[in-house]
Write a structure and sequence with these properties.
homodimer; 65% helix; 139 residues; two-stranded antiparallel ribbon; DNA-binding; mainly alpha
Chain lengths: 139, 139
DNA sequence: TATTGTTATACTCTATAACTATA
DNA sequence: TATAGTTATAGAGTATAACAATA
């Protein structure tokens, strides 16, 4: 192949890890977009459909449907924005908070077991790499 | 949130990096499955639909359609397996090899520029992390 | 009889375009 | 007039079930 080690093996490693982490969510009840929405509003509080669509990288109609699925599942509710009659706020329900915590727990359980099996040096390497990767991805 | 730093920030970092690398492919002509197939057969040689489906995590009919799209695009061809009449081999065409190289070039260009901006120690950290991540993901 | 691949069909997700309501 | 959200409709991708061919 053309570019053997120019990327330090990062592209392959990130791709494999991403697929594995997605599999370890252990729930196929929500798709990627729906999961992103639930994670966002449970972690960072209520958001408008526009904000969620921009973050998830989907169009307003797609986000509308994704939110509708979460509403039907009882995980979030739509509330009118008290300051702007045009806007809607997507707010997690207690069930939604529980569900999000449960998914995070499963995923952390799987990853945590792997991390525990590493040496302190390896863990330190990964923690440092996570910071560097985050900077690169956001650049 | 419930599990602040137990994952060393890896889940978020991997997710962001994956999305960014996908965006930097700079081509929306192929979807994830199709791209995975083309990457696989150009990097590791001809594979059967079953092997490709297992790797990409899709069912045989889905893989069949994905391969069909690549065939229509002139990027791969289906050839009979000389040793087993039931099997089919997906083989990249010259065009397919060129296309895959081009995508890799764009992605490496973006990532390479970021890696060049790092210190030697940071690059070493990332290379070590890539190896560890690969082991974890494949475990 | 098991395995590999293919076809038929339906469902989910997403997008574009058009419409409604509020600022 | 611009912005936020919604509705209508169509296209792409995937899955389950059933079928064909070969080992």
């Amino acid at each position: 192949m053309s570019f053997p080690e120019q990327d330090l093996g990062l592209i392959g490693a990130v791709g494999r890890m991403y697929r594995r982490l997605r599999a370890e969510r252990g729930s196929d009840e929500l798709n990627d977009t729906q999961f992103t929405v639930l994670a966002m509003v449970t972690r960072e509080g209520p958001r408008t459909p526009s904000e969620l669509g921009a973050f998830a990288g989907v169009t307003p109609p797609s986000m509308h449907q994704a939110i509708g699925c979460l509403v039907d599942a009882g995980l979030v509710v739509r509330e009118p924005d008290p300051h702007d009659g045009r806007k809607v706020l997507v707010v997690p329900t207690a069930t939604g908070e529980q569900f999000a915590d449960e998914v995070r727990r499963r995923r952390h359980e799987w990853l945590g077991a792997r991390l525990d099996a590493l040496s302190p040096e390896e863990r330190q390497t990964l923690a440092a790499a996570a910071r560097i990767l985050r900077d690169i991805a956001d650049s």
